[in-house]
């Protein structure tokens, strides 16, 4: 374990949740959580420092994913799990990229269709408003179109 690691509780919530998931009580002892937190933190620091040494051996200042794979190469279970997580991450990012691309196109098409619908709705509302304005604008002594039409019908029926 690394001697440079200070006593910090970086993973205390995660460790207590994992303990509960594996059958411990809901609120494990703080000493247990602190002990496991130190172990996890120490392990991560060691893996990262090993990966950094691998990168320096390759004359690079930046770490690559391959450096971490090389650092855990002696543990086939961890290496397999890391490769599985890397592959899953690639699938997720590719799916997000495809979804966002098609989602943006669909959104543009939807918005274009929505604007056309709004224009059609506005035209229909303008026609309705014009008809209502004509009907209400007629003075009370005059007949509107519908009343005049009814009046003609009633005269014809009287003549027959």
UniProtKB/TrEMBL annotation:
Single biological process term from Gene Ontology: RNA polymerase II preinitiation complex assembly
GO MF: protein heterodimerization activity
Keyword Coiled coil attached: yes
Signal sequence annotation: none
Record's keyword terms, sorted: Coiled coil, Nucleus, Transcription, Transcription regulation
Biased composition (Basic residues): 142-160
GO CC terms in record: transcription factor TFIID complex
Location within or outside the cell: Nucleus
UniProt feature, compositional bias: Acidic residues: 114-132
Protein's job: Functions as a component of the DNA-binding general transcription factor complex TFIID. Binding of TFIID to a promoter (with or without TATA element) is the initial step in pre-initiation complex (PIC) formation. TFIID plays a key role in the regulation of gene expression by RNA polymerase II through different activities such as transcription activator interaction, core promoter recognition and selectivity, TFIIA and TFIIB interaction, chromatin modification (histone acetylation by TAF1), facilitation of DNA opening and initiation of transcription.
Protein family according to the UniProt entry: Belongs to the TAF13 family.
Protein's recorded name: Transcription initiation factor TFIID subunit 13
Naturally occurring in which organism (per UniProt): Torulaspora globosa
């Amino acid at each position: 374990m690394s001697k440079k690691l200070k006593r910090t509780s970086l993973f205390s919530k995660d460790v207590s949740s994992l303990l509960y998931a594996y059958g411990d009580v809901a609120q494990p002892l703080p000493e247990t959580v602190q002990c496991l937190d130190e172990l996890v933190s120490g392990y991560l620091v060691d893996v990262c420092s090993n990966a950094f040494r691998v990168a320096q051996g390759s004359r690079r200042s930046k770490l690559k994913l391959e450096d971490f794979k090389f650092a855990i190469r002696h543990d086939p279970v961890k290496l397999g799990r890391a490769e599985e997580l890397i592959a899953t991450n690639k699938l997720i990012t590719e799916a997000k990229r495809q979804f966002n691309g098609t989602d943006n196109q669909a959104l543009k098409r939807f918005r274009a269709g929505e604007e056309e619908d709004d224009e059609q709705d506005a035209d229909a509302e303008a026609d309705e408003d014009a008809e209502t304005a004509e009907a209400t604008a007629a003075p009370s002594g005059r007949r509107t179109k519908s009343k005049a039409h009814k009046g003609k019908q009633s005269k014809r029926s009287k003549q027959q």
